[in-house]
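USER:
Before I trust my own judgement here, I would like a peer's view. Write it directly below this note and I will take it from there.

ASSISTANT:
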Amino acid sequence: MNELKAKVYETAISKVKEKIKMLDEERRAINLGILEDTKSSAGDKFETGRETMTQDLLTVEKQLKQAKFEFDELCRLQSIKGISPTVQEGSLVQLGNDVFLISLSLGQLDVDGQKIFLLSESSPLGQTLIGQKKGGEVNFRGKMMKIEGLF
């Protein structure tokens, strides 16, 4: 299962790198659009278009900053070695038939044909799992689930 955990981190980091690359390209395109935009006789239209592009640029830069944070956080969590006796940040948890990585809320990944869910320790399920031990049972939304594995 440690191989799976390594692959999960690899896949998640790769996904975030792709996101960073896409956002960086989008930022370059917006910057180029702003630089190439020339003032026309319709001054108000020019100002409105330029303001829209500036707002788009700010949005992309905010998303890029978040993606870089996610990359750094995944790298930090990946560096945690060893297996804790309890669920903690960075743990790979098998809960029934589902597998969860307690890290960032990045949704679902497909790793070697297996669905892995990345969730934050501050998510409702993350909060329920933190501190639990392998073999323990948790009640989540009225359903009892057993922790089958902890890696």
Observations:
- The longest strand covers residues 143-150.
- The mean pLDDT is 90.
- Strands lie at 92-95, 98-103, 107-111, 114-120, 137-140, 143-150.
